[in-house]
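Fold this complex.
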Amino acid sequence: MATLKNIIPILMLFFPVATYSQKDVWTVPPEKAAKVNPLEIKPKNLTVGKNIFSRNCVACHGAKADGQGLIQSASFLTDTFQKQTDGAIFHKMVTGRNKMPPFGSVLKDDEVWSVINYLRVLVNPSVLPPPKDIRIELAASEETHSLTAFLTTADSVRVPLGEVDVHYYIKRDFGLMRFGEISNYTSEKGKVTVSFPDGIIGDDQGNVTVLARIENDFLYKNNESAVVLRWGSLLVTEDAKFNERTLWGSRSKSPVWLLILANGILAGVWGVILYILYNLFRIKKAGKIFIK
Amino acid sequence: MDFNEQNKSRRKFLRNLGLAAPAVIAGSGVILEGCSSPEGGSGAKVKVLTADHKLVEVEVAGIAANKESADKSYLTKRGRKGLEGKKFVLVVDLGKCKNARKCMDKCQAVHQLRPDQHHLNVLLMKDSEHTSPYFMPKHCQHCDNPPCVKVCPVDATFKRSDGIVLIDNERCIGCRFCIAACPYTARSFNWYEPIDAEKYKDVPYDIEKNVPQKKGTVTKCTFSADCLREDKLPYCVSACPNGVYYFGNLYENAVTNGTTGETVSLSDLLAENSAYRLMEDLGTAPSVYYLPPKNRALIPDIENDNSKKI
Amino acid sequence: MTDLYRKDEEIKKEQFQELLSDLTRPLNHTSLTFKIWTGFLLLLAAGAGFMYFRQVQQGLGTTNMRDIASWGLYVSNFVFLIAVSLVGSLITAILKLSNVRWATPLTRISEIIAVAALISALLIIVVDMGRPDRLWHIAVFGRLQSPIVWDIITVNTYLVLSLLLLYLPLIPDLARLGSFMSHKPAWQRKMYKILSLGWQGTGDQLKLLEKSVAVLMVIIIPVAFSIHTVTSWLFASTLRPGWDSTIFGPYFVAGAFMVGAAAVIVVMYLIRREYSYKQYLTDHHFDMIGKLLVLTSLVYLYFNLNEYMVPGYKMKSGESAHILGLFKGEFAIMFWLVQTVGLILPIILLVFKPFRKPRPLLIISLIIVVGAFLKRYLIVTPTLLHPFLPVQNYPESFAHYHPTFSELVITSGSFAIMALVVTVFIRFFPIIPICETAHEKGIDQETINNQ
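Structure:
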């Protein structure tokens, strides 16, 4: 019963949203729908689009763009959506309606277009050529505390690859921590350099594992390269503090004052008890002497 | 140390084999794989790797019969020491909690708890009349000045150097002083024979997971110490569908979100969100931080809330 | 020697004879009431034993304690019994050291109550344990930082001191019993003989005994204070609203003196009635201990005022739920009954002499004892039911605590065991000190020795 009671208000919450998406037609003026997407479908644009998508859209439309985010919303994978012109989608994104905020005030036109490109590729990846192998080399510069990734083709010719987004990470216990910019594109020489951030804590030697990754790229397969650097500050533990004698410490770590106090009192009282027992013994002895 | 190394390599081997619920026979004893086994080997049969690297399928009860007391105390002894160079910290983003309770369900399943026993409890909070309600997942706070550990008469509950407060249910005498002393209502007691006691009767006690539960002893959140030993996130953290939990090592100043896997700087996360700890004025120095319930994903409906009932 | 002197000696001898046969009457005489009473106590204890066996088998789930109210009737009862045990030091040590002569016939009563209450308290706290089979862990793994360990040490130390304080003044009486109880079975006479340590009443023995008793009386006072202070720290050492108080130590000690005095009055009355001890436990005794009860009650009232008035004035967030629960919430009826009928009313009544007559004093004392028991319950439970964080995701019943039948039976069993200890003691040992009373009546040591 309790679960049913829980479900009803949740259903009621979603109901109006569902009706909107089905009954209400969101009409776009023909001149707006006819607007042409000025951007080419290029990896760089797609990455920009992807980043914006994951920042602004995923919450409602879901990471898979299937409309299963925090609220029920339009799926971008359906034909209904994909059949629209780029211009129509652009208009809807910029103006917004009901729960869909008007992104025109937040995003630049190019950024909106790049999101649209991304959504097109998401459904139809064949627009792009199949991803190729890539070789990645990571070099560290001690002088500038910076890292340079060098990307080439995986074949023996080793052609430097430009315009590839490299992600930099620092390895932590439970995952990888990003640093550098959101996108770090290689130059024409196939190189991109980022500086190592301050205040990174390494192990007890100061060693830090740094990774450069090509991931989820539209042209290249995933690859990574790692180096271990002694650029971190030393890991400082609080073990000394932990090993102090405290009230919450284990039995072998009771505070000295407590030991003295408790054992002192105990010794005093039990000393008296022993003294009295000794007196009882003396009383018994005194009785025997009397009989003799 | 030697044992540890051996164990690690075997585990790796198992993982390479892609087993879902492996158990390892190491030397003379048996250790049920903790974090990677969904329900602690609840099935009747379990895959086991023998010392000479042969894979066999045996019944859970069958392995247990081979166990020796030395291995039981090995788990407990190992569990009493903290993991070196680590001090664990949990960050709870209250704004993201939608009361999905996947964390609670996972926790109760893993730790073999009854529905009314909570290592982790999602509370519906309303601080005062005119403030807005919010959901607050509440774990053991793994305090640095733990009132519960102070009062334990037999060292059954203790604090490790990695910050985790554990309880040894083979030591606990059931006085429940720690329950009385905890201001966060974080502890629970086995008032009856635990569920499935018969099934887990012969399974060696794992102090880091605190299973099998034992009648007449106190049980509490372990920060999933068994997972942490394998560099995996706690059960509740990885069970959350809404990105509420960040977990990490305070010493390396990084926490990882259990839902998105994103790792961020702990100090930045705490600073940018004006983090706070529960009942700071009590001086318990918790290891759990809360990010205020700003921009809530779901504002609780306090009128129709049923969370007080089971 | 003159006739006059001889006659005086004869009178003294006769007096002592009479005293001896009077005060050993409970040892020789078992009435039907006594047998029914003992049978009733044994039945209660057996019932409790059965319920406890069931509890050990099924777990503490047979009680109504749960994760929120994790301590209940057992712990309240423990605190109550510890409180009662304090009376031994009050009457025997404090009053005797202050040369209060009317207290002499009450010393042994109060001391045996103390011993019985302590035994019962130690039993009930084991009953409260989830794993009584692991009691030995305290000895092996005991942690000095825990107030429970302090409590175990002090309670056992106090038990040893109380037994000694019960035993030492009994030695001269035991020596008399050895010769006087010739009609008793051999084992009983042997017991008296062994326990009397060959007492001859020589000057050396008297001196040693007097010195030992004096030392005991001094040392038992701080130990008595410490047991109840440490017991109060089981609560005061936590951060919980209602327990987080700095006056808990003296507050508990004051309450203990009050309930202890009341308990002595109840036992005094029953002994006086059963054995017609009107000339030993006189109306004067009742009058005086009634006055003592007023004094201890007033001190306790003062502490109550501090304990509830101050937080009630401030209404700090954590405390207010607890205080309001007592003042006008779930516990209001019990709280105000305990405070008015159990504390204020007795004080007002006991100021007037007619109410210090034995029978009205008995009724008032019974009310005080019951009130004091409920007061311990009010200290333990409401605090646990008002934790800092909301009580959610538990069954509705977790938010309240009402003891189960099993808990009630076991608790009454603990009282039965306490009463049994007192009853058995009265059956085998003189409950009114013989030699001390003789001294007070001016009978010299020589007459006593020559008996």
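Chain C has one domain: 20-444.
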